[in-house]
Fold each of these.
Amino acid sequence: MEETYEIRGTNWLDSVQKLLASVFETSSVTSMLVPVRHSTTHVLMPTLVSDPGELEGADPFAPCFPLNSAKLVSKLTKKHSNEIIAAVLRPCELRALVELVKIKQATMDNLITISFDCAGAYPNREYNRTGAEGKAAEGKAKTLGFMEQRLGSKLDDDTDKQLSTSCRICTGPFPENADLCITLLDHDPGALGVFAGTDRGRELIMGKAFEVKSLPGTRADTVKEVLQRKKEAAKKVFEDLAGKTATMAGLGNYLASCVNCYNCRVACPVCFCRECVFNTDVFDYEPFQYAAWAKNKGTLRMPMDTVFFHLTRMIHMGLSCVGCGQCSNACPNDIRVAELFTAVGKGVQQGFGYEAGKSMDDPFPLSVFFEDEFQDVTGI
Amino acid sequence: MNYTYYPGCSLSGSAMEYDVSTRAVFERLGITLTEIDDWNCCGATAAEAVSSLLGSALGARNLALAESMDPSSDILVPCSACYLNLKKVEMERREDPELAKNLDTILGEEDLAINNPPRVRHLLDVLVNDITADTLLQKTTRPLTGLRVVPYYGCQCLRPYAVFDDPEAPTSMDGLLRACGAEVVEWEMGARCCGASNMSTKPETAKKLVQKILMDARGADAIATVCPMCQLNLEGFQKAISRDAGTDLSISVLYLPQLIGLALGLDQGEVKLDKNLALMPGFMEKLLGFDIVIPH
Amino acid sequence: MGEKQGRALVVGAGISGIRSALDLAETGCDVTLIDAAPHMGGVLSKLEYQFPSDGCGMCRLLPMADRDTCLQACLRKGLVHGGIDLMLSTTLKGLEGEAGKYRAILETEPSIIDPKLCTGCNRCSEVCPVTIPDPFNQGLSTTKAVHLPVPHAIPNIYTIDMDHCTLCGECETVCPFGAIYLPGEDRLELKIPRTLVEMDVGAVVLACGIDYYDPLSGVNTFGYKALKDVVSNIELERILSGTGPFNGSLKRPSDGQVPSRMAWIQCVGSRDLEFPACSSVCCMIALKEAVLVRKRSRQTIETVIYYMDMRCFSKEFEAYRRRAENEYGVILKRARPHSVRYDRNTGGLSLYITDDSGIRVDEMFDMVVLSLGQRPGKSVKELAEITGIGLNPLGFFEDPLSGEGDKTGVFAAGSASGLKDIGESVIHSSSASAMALKVIHGARSPHDEEREPLNGFRDVSTQVPDIGVILCQCANGPDIEPQVKSMGASDVHVSGVMAMDRICTREGWDGMLETLAEKTFNRILVLACTPQLFLDKKAAISKAVNLDPAYIDFADLGKGEPLAATVKMGLARIRYADRLNSRASAMVPTVLVVGGGLGGMTAALSVADTGFEAIIVEKESRLGGNLVWLEKDITGNDFGRLLDNTCRRVEKHPGIRVFTNAVVEDSRGGPGNYTTSLKTCDNDSKIIDHGAVILATGGREAETSAYGYGTSDAVMTHREVEQALKAGTMDPVNLNVVVMIQCVDSRNDSREYCSRICCKSSLKHALEMKRLNPELDVYVLYREMMSYGFSETYFKEAREKGVIFIRYSQELQPEVLSGTDGVMVKVHEPILDRTLEIRSDLVVLATGILPSVIKPLAALFDARVDDYSFFKAADSKWRPVDAVNGGVFACGLALGPRDAKESVASARAAAMGALRLISSKSAGVSLVTAGIKPSLCTLCERCIDSCVYGARTLDSDAGKIRIDPVACQGCGSCAAVCTNSASFLNNYLDQQMFEIIDAAI
Amino acid sequence: MDELLQLKTMLNPCIQCGTCTASCPNEVDMDLVPRKLWRMVLMDRHEAIFDSRTFILCSSCYLCTLRCPRGLPLTAAMARLKAIAAKRDLAKYRKSTRFYKSFMESVRRHGRVREGEFMGLYFLAMKNPLLPLSFASLGIQLMKKNKVAFELPAKPGIGNLDRLFKKVAEIEEAL
């Protein structure tokens, strides 16, 4: 068992702030990306903090993430820089980051990743509606209340109806290979544990003035129990979805209100094209073509290519989908895009024996070739 | 078409009916058989088991005698063991000059010599290829209609020298028997060993082989043979084997020329049916029912 | 480069002939490829599945450089190459003259059906009243007397089986093209007579293949043809084939039931008295077939292979055998069934065998497959007489170790000199073409015309598409002109639709060219049937209208698809047709050969003999490699003399530079253009530019610590024995008992492969020792004697000389105990089922072959090594000596264990591969080549990972992906993985494909 | 040359495929199946060979000879082993070898076998008073048919092959 250090602050946020501050102390990190509740707007946003004193507003556990921070890490690391930064990421954000690193849109060379047992999040609009966006102290209290309730129920999703579906069906809410992994489950309220998920993490954590302890003995069982519940929830959601979208007509209905705003694409952490093919002249039709199609079919739904757009995105991104749910957050017309993408992503990843974001060591499918794969498809 | 005739020891003793019926059939066909003067035993399976040179010498003496009588007429041998022993000398002499030299020395003792010996032919070979089934068909006057026969070839007329038939799946008797009006029953045992040479010394082994053959022949009226060892082996132990097998395996066993003789119109005495050890009442009944028909 | 060479004649259009013909055509020769059959493809036209991939891969023989000179389609259908004249139903009847200046007489069978007129419309077959057994399916299904010889061939020319034809004349009447001329009353008068052609050729390659043993010619104890469910392995291949008698489902011929137990009987017609050689490939064929059956039946059909030795002697074969046994559950039984009997009670087939324990068992099957051995091809004897090439005692072409000194210009290729698997045949054929090329090159006259340079076409790349449509009209076909015209009228890019009367005729064709010459279209679409055949015609149109062939395309009217879709798809395709505006730089006419052993030297000579430069880099101080210590091979070839001759030729050759004590330090570039730095003995760096590289780094006898090696002088390896015998320090007269142990440290979990030469080494030394001391007792402890091919005769000879062979198993290995008076070897003898103790004076270990370390070297050139650290070939069957990227080749032991003769062949083949690349013109980039739009590229590098040809690299200085247009084979993987649409495949563009799909639906 | 060495040389090409065993009708009663027997010959296991009853059970059906993929004269090889056993008068095989010897003795005396006389000779040679009983059933059948009569050894007469036998022995001695 990996050595675990226990940190006991006045509450969970105090504990985590202590930990984050210590990272500044004992490493050459110059800045840290972490959700901070802004002092004037009181809005929680990923913030690049270079002054450890500013960590007071840091709240990585709030049931909300306005965007998937992997995209921001890409911006911070894609081009060469000598700065060493740290990033506090939810497990799904970390997974997205791993995918981006594989496709050379980010690097981990000068990056320290910190992740934690994720209690989930509300849909963005839901969170805003709950009024947590109030003053700093209220926000904090809201987070702590949420934590108490969630950890107390051992992440029983049925006790919190506001949770986003993506979080309810998330089967990877625990940190695995972050440099520093924060554990919350089965600790005393307010306390947290931290262990190293990588060699780099091990170096970092060594010599820290925390109390050494092994992980709570019950953790493994609790983790198993949580995952089991979530898997069942996911199964139900996917079955329901499959019933609705198994046919082209069903899929059309599901996506019927799509207006080609492409917000889901923008929100998607792993969608990385410089210019999406749907913005190029490939889909820039001539007026006479529209006319011809309309004549051919009698009617022509406009804007065109909405289902095609989502299908293309599934093909392009399905293998990398980490199930963070931001696409659903982004949809102006409340299409449940995330469930669809997660289901398709899971299926296609399973086909290749791949799990998006799981490990840097798994080669990306389609870039490797095995003679015997997909015999049931190829027939040979 | 005449042949030099080598009857061999069995045909002058336990297989006299083979000898008599063979001679009778050829006489009926108008072919002369001239017996080799002073022929000697071919050595059977015993000579080689004592000395292989002795075996060759015994055979060679007969070839030399036949050549001195008439070098242009083939040697007709009804007994398969004799046939093989004589054939072996014929073949090996040609391939092994050392052996030929030794044989010359031995034969020299009696002022005999082999230069260009006549061909050694088995009776079945002559019947199939020289006489032919067509001739038999023409000459058949008493068709054995409805007689179900299994042809049994044994080993040594077929193997190791595949001269006139497939050594494992022989068919040469089929045409002859059909020409006689008999029905040829398909079976598996035609070329299987009957173990005759073991019957005296290892009867328990030999009887197993005979039993297999008799079992497969069930349903036929008769077995046709072309070898005195096989004949004796198949007809002589039927009671004991039936006892061992717990089922009645008795069946009539006849030499092929006996059956041919009957078809050609010879009477039972002319083919010496009285000498056969195994003739079942059913067979005899059928035999009585065969009518002589005048060929058109 | 791209100099015009002379003409070569290749006899036989199976895979060996195709390989040779392509080799010679790609290096600038004109090639006449003939085959006695009315179709090409040889025996492979009937076989769809090849081990180890259990699929086909024949198309991998197609050219990789100058791809547009050759139809890029399934090779099992046909070969269409600009430099190859294919003559079917044609045989070589005479050959006069000398190497470089032969006059060949070719005879073409009279044809009842004119191949120039037949379009394969099938109407003749529909009316033919005569049904015959289909020879293509080995008689397992039926066809008509007028039929297609190979159903998938292009062109689809019908033939008439005149042995069965009743001359009723129905087909003649119904043929819409007047292509059928049945002979007249006297049956001798043929309208298209037997034709004789005389032809000047520089060299001849004989690739006439082999025949199979016919069980009916012997005693046929297996009941072949007598029992319906006893089939030959070729018949089984037909049964498994989608074009086979049961449309690919596995059924037994007698009653169409799916069999539940199948047996394979090996060595039918091989390793027997009549044919004392091993047919080399049957073991793998049987394993492959059994695996196929297991796969097909989802492991429900039990498969048993009865074998004597399972000869999986090539590099990957042992692994395949393991997979067959462990993953697919193929059962292997060491036994030799003598006959197959029909069981009347069950309707099954029974086999009597004795298993290892000596117990006789009777096994029942419902299908039995006979692994038929090889026999020389029908025409081998006649061709030997015509060409003067020698025959070995078994009637195959002689295959001397060194063909270098021979004056002849006639070379055997592939299995005509002994059955080989596909990989070996391909190697051997390229070896033959390398020798032929040398002859042709040497005889080349300076007056030969230079090949016309490409380009000089009008530049239409920036013009708006202006499409001209040519519609080929058959007089007897439906009138589709109005429909096509109206489609043309509604497409703004089409400016003319012209109907022509049959362009497949001379007049029609000339008429079309005339019409086109008057127009100024910048895109031309020709609507016709079987357009695959029009590859060379494209060039003719291109010339007539001064238009890059990239802008000319054909659409197939003969496929039975809706006309509108065909035409619209054709229009969509041609509208976007373009040629990438990139140019490959010129090929560097130099080949770098790493390693100066027999393979390296042979490869360098083959390169230099054809006018290119070869550079040998050898890390030791002298050339020769393993030949330095070897004395002779099992057939008695004198290696000392071979070494001297080869070294002398290398040293004298003006086209070869040798660096000894030198190693490769680094390399950049790609196929056609490498810049490599060498480190020479005095620590100098030397920079070399070259177009291709051949890795001939060799291998060595494996070290061992098994069986007490190193603790007793009485335990030696074969190399030590060879050296001791050569030096005279060992005299077998002083020995009483010698034990040889095979497969030491080999064919086990740690070293899976068979080293394939050790059995021959043991036989060689056993026979040599017995020769010197007939009293000597020699025991060879083996697991499987891999005396494949003609070396089987030495196995037999060794037994006859009294060498005792004892089989041991992986589980029950021999033990060697050293004592004061010699060594005691304990071994379990399986036939007797008891342990023998052999007190011996000498134990010789066959320790196998290990490769020299080539991984870092290969990596420098973007090539890889396999699981065993040998060079990894792109495809063990079809591209056996090349790396995937097409610029790196390997030969000899670097490629895998092989004997000297096989090394020489692989060296010539590697040289041939390099020559194919560096003699390509590469003036224009092939039409289907990948490109990149940097403005869309996010540099995710997925395209680099996905490119198996190594054609893509990241230029990190410029922040761009670079594509090597020579290495790119147009597979499209990069375009498929690129979500940005930054990677694209020319002529398969997004818009183009969308429009084509739109047109199709 | 030693007879067994000769035999070994003759059998050297054997590949131990077992076709002989699979073909042999008497294989079930053999203690060493033919394949093993030949292996013993090649390995010079003389004791084992003459400890087995294999070759004496050979009924000369020639199937193995016919089928041997190496074309080896296996039936002849069996006979050679019988001959060696006869010459050495090995106790184990006396029942058979003396049968053969008695047969040949009858041949030597008269040139032909007198079936009755040879059986008599055989019974004398075996010195087993019970032995004749095992032949009784067939013998009685034959006698009933007046085909054969047991007779005591007669003096050599016409057809005597003494000279031939002697010459053969002479030549064999010289080999």
Amino acid sequence: MKPRSAIPVASAALALALLAFATPPVAAADTVDPAADARAFKKFFTDKFPKLKPEDFVNGPYSMNEDLHKQWEEKEQFPPYEFSLEAGKEMFSKPFKNGKSYQDCFPNKGIGIRQNYPYFDEKEGKVVTLELALNRCREANGEAPFSYVKDDMAALTAYMAFTSRGKPFDIKIPKDPRALEAYQKGKEYFYTRRGQLNFSCATCHIQSPGERIRAEVLAPALGILNAMPIYRSEWSGMGTTSRRFTTCNSQIRGVPLDPQADEYRDLEYYLSYVSNGLPISGPGARP
Amino acid sequence: MSITDNGFSATRRLVLKGAGTVALAGLGVISLDLPAAFAAANDKYPEEAFKQKSEADAIKLLYGRTAELSDKVKMDAPEIAENGAVVPVSVSTTLTDVTSIAFLVSENPNALIASYKIPAGTIPSVANRIKMAKTSNVIVIVEAGGKLYSATKEVKVTVGGCGG
Amino acid sequence: MRNTVLKSVLTALLVAGATSAFAASEDDFKAAYAAAEAANKEAGSLRNQWTTTASTLAAAKKAADSGDFDHAVAQAKEAEALAKASIFQATSEKERWKNMEIR
Amino acid sequence: MASTIRVRATSNGDTTEVQALIQHPMDSGFVKDAQGQIIPPHFIQELTFEYDGKAVFVADWGGGISKDPYVKFAFKGGKKGDDLKVSWVDNKGATDTTTAKIQ
């Protein structure tokens, strides 16, 4: 690291100091009310983008910019995730060595259920995401788990998302204080600034959706997970929600956590809950 | 030497030459399809043309002459590419008896991206997804009735995200 | 003319300054590196490390391995500053995230 | 292994619109991999579409065509149920071919 980098350190520390004094912490309501949060969250975006219908938000940056929307429609004629989707469909029906298959691990044989994930598992007392459930199913049947960020997992979740296309997100928070706490931790992670660039998810996806960060148009936080998993031209390949979280962290110079760390599971729980009612549109294509 | 900046002198030269050949052809002295002997017409893969750095050399190797800008060639390309790796570009034209269509990106390491042969009966319109190294002019060439027509548009390309 | 005299005086002072402070020794590096690593570990416990801390630590180690302890100590100190900033960020954000929350 | 070519050909009576997506890395030879090694050029050079024995569209491609290449065109003629033969060859001599039914 060249000494030149001393300047960003000083500026980051300075910015932090300024921030600490500039805005006195506001006493937040202590009771956690997810339903009210979700309403406020949706209202914020429908007020900010009055021309957009709620379900448009699931198209991320493409709902924010006409030129991009045209490029997206062009891609959607024969989308680049076509191969991954077909591979996922094939893998999903291929039985494991012990004769069982994914269909035996999931309700309704795994078809049309993606909108209920992630869910809070009261036995485990933690949030369980679709990717985690898939790997647990593999391990329960004597198969090696897939990487959470690579193509196999993305192909499986692509197929499962495809079978749920159009179904509204339906995330439930059971009457269990641990579920409420997981939801609250997810919300806290979403708004907490991190990394040397000192950004939080909200800095980009609440404060400036539709703006550009260099060439990329930022997606609104509402409905941001509805299209997962996504084929990104940037990766020229598929990516799951975990891949998206870890790459976002490293882009703002924060060290990413494990792909299925509790923080990410809670974050996905929060983000999915506040997008309840918006249709699943995965797998999606993105810039 | 890109088409646009000396477009006028090229067309003037072309017109002169065109007039010249017509006059001579009228006399039945030289055969008209001399340019057709170039790679675009026969079906060999134009290896050399794909190796050229500049689009002018690629076009010369592919067709043996220069093209003139024409509003009959309609190119559809984005203002700002969402990503340089996948840039949807398409072309359509009202010109008749089109025999080949080519796409070039002047700032790419090799300018020539694709050259399509359009047999009789095939509609002169192609859509594809191309790679662009950086902001550049995208040029499309349509060969119709032995003459070359072109359209060009600048497409901006930059890196996304927060960077390093 | 006056300007060049000034400049040469200045550079002389600088050079004297540099050599007069004794060159950093391997022990100085070890101490500075240990402090930086400890701070970064604490940031890890707060689940809020920065990638630049890790790369600066690596640069410090590389400089030390090549025997350039002056540079190594400077890098280690900078890594410590980065780690401390990431700790400050984690603790100050504990409450301040609420300011941005949509209610 | 399933074919690398996905074709969608739909006829509306007098013209048939054809879309194709092909699974291929289309490496241009100008990109480096994570270890900094140049990835050698590996791209489809020629893609041919044939309808009742004669070529209706031939694509000569360079390294500048996107990964998993896509192309769309249309030709006069072609009835529902007829065959459309699609084949490609790349710079390493690998090939693949498939025959699709016009919808």
